Amino acid sequence: MRMIHAADLPSTIPIFPLPGALLLPRARLPLHLFEPRYLQMLEDVLKTGTRLIGMVQPMEHANDGARLHSIGCAGRVTGFSETEDGRYMITLAGMSRFRLGQEVDGFAAYRRFAVSWAGFDKDLVSQPESDNFDRKPLFSLLERYLDAEGLRTDWDGLEDAEDELLINSLAMLCPFETEDKQALLEAPSLSTRRETLVTLMEFALRGGSSDEMM
């Protein structure tokens, strides 16, 4: 995959608002595209040098999905395949978070926004965990959480994963509410994201709701 540097990041990108679909820097997100507007978006994106799509969470209580959270994460299309009926399976590799600016008017069927990458320069470089956290309590909590949700995971893969990949993969895969996913996205550091992840799993095991945490 070609490296993207801060100077390569465009000032305007297409936006894919998708509730619950969290993308984080250096993580990978598979997506299924079938709506005509997003098929057109993919066609246009593949013609650009960076091939970036911005993933943004719609506001939880926005009935029409038009209102979006102000921070999202851009991913580079690194792979795609077409099905017999014209749909596409694509993979996004997370590059950097961004802050939404003004929506760009135009004739495109999908939405485009001016974006600012300021404040997220560290997203383009790996963020190793600095405090050598003990994984055993996290795995114990995760096991109880997954059991409660009726889910399974590849424990060997998790145990072998580096800290950043471990935390980001769990943040993306756990079935949290949209606002909780947004909190994980906006965490200023990997340690903060890990602490937020632990809090959300503990809260879910106690039977709490996102509204109680707000």
Automatic annotation (TrEMBL):
InterPro entries: Lon_prtase_N, Lon_prtase_N_sf, PUA-like_sf. Residues 13-205 form the Lon N-terminal domain. Signal peptide: none annotated. One of its GO terms (biological process) is proteolysis. One of its GO terms (molecular function) is serine-type endopeptidase activity. The keyword Hydrolase applies. Keywords: Hydrolase, Protease. This is Lon protease. The gene is lon_2.
